[in-house]
Amino acid sequence: MNVHDSDLIESGLVKKGFKKAVSVEDADIVVFNTCSVRDNADHKVISELGRLKKNYADKKIVLAGCFAKQIKLKKEQNGNMYFDYCFAPEEIFSIPDILANNAAVNDIGGSNETRQDYYLAERPEEYLENAGKIEEYFYGKKPENDGTASVKITEGCNNFCSYCIVPYVRGRERSIPIGIIYKTVKNLIDKGASEITLLGQNVNSYVSPDDDKKDFRFLLNTVSEIEGSFKIRFLTSHPKDFNDKLIDTVCGDNKIAKEIHLPVQSGSDKILAMMNRGYNSADFLKLVRKLKNGNIDISISTDIIVGFPGETEKDFEDTLKLIEEAEFSSIFAFKYSPRPFTKAFKFNDDVLLEVKKERLERVFQKYKEISLRQCAR
Ligand code: SF4
């Protein structure tokens, strides 16, 4: 998602006449599009801002993305962080105009100028008013050299998983109208794309804002009907929104890649409830079985968080058990870190760092065992 947004910023700047520098040394302006999903992402931004200040004090620094939104929400002053401009994710469409006009907007609260021209507005009805900007960018997209291309279909999230900062920094869920997505994908295919990834925080809750019957399944069918030889992928799906009809579509359509990313986060029902994930371990395994029964070649990857507040050894063993049963094709595992604004931020972060590290290692070990077993078949 961040790569997609960086691409959007870059294309807007190039259109305004800015040239892409080959290195930071050569640049007059450095644009920093940031992530905020884990605390180490925040630490990297803070240390990089310090490094830039020390080594390149003459450059204009643009801070954009989720970390920028965090600063705005906290109404923090710059403090020891050095930047000239600060744009939340919904404001990144205004970056080219503001930079071209050379107006310094380091007002932490965001000025009227930045707010007028934003990309996807907080209120759904506003967002259609900005469709022209979205279309301009989407229709100008080109596939990467390897034939891949990504298309954002939703922004933000309504799920409020208790550990997740996304609904706060990216706002409530807003979907791009299906007509814009269709035309964008068609343009990309016509330009030679062989693989399209539909992107969103929770793609399977997609509903076109101009017609609530046009859901994610409808979108997949619509995109799949475009003529040409290409594969469709999508990221990220929420297990609670993966219904039987969607399983049929995914398993029955040859254009849809049989590689599904399905974040489970934990195998403990107690922890899943505390995380507000909306399913338990049995629901998740039932879904995995249905997907695998529908298509024996399907591979399912997942995300796991270890060391969530209150996670006991027994809870963690339940996670290992679920990993064993689901036989994931790959696992992205992370140590829990509290994120500001979230419900879990108020929980007691009581799992020791050493224990989190050890559990992370055990997840990777379990994954290695499964991979070896899969290779031996
Ligand atoms: S589904 Fe949960 S984890 Fe995913 S973006 Fe939404 S709140 Fe965050």
Features of the shown structure:
Rossmann fold; 11 strands; 377 residues; Transcription Regulator spoIIAA; 3-stranded parallel β-sheet; 3 domains; globular
Question: What structural class is derived from the secondary structure elements?
Answer: alpha/beta
CATH architecture of the largest domain: 2-Layer Sandwich
Main sheet record: 3 strands, parallel
Q: What is the CATH topology assignment of the largest domain?
A: Transcription Regulator spoIIAA
The rough form would be described as globular
Helix-strand blueprint:
Layout: H1 2-15, E1 29-34, H2 39-55, E2 60-65, H3 66-74, E3 85-87, H4 95-100, H5 112-116, H6 124-129, H7 131-139, E4 148-152, E5 154-155, H8 166-169, E6 174-175, H9 178-190, E7 195-199, H10 216-224, E8 231-235, H11 244-252, E9 259-261, H12 269-275, H13 281-294, E10 299-306, H14 313-326, E11 330-335, H15 353-376
Parallel strand pairs: 1-2, 2-3, 4-7, 7-8, 9-10, 10-11
Antiparallel strand pairs: 5-6
Helix pairs in contact: 7-9, 10-11, 14-15
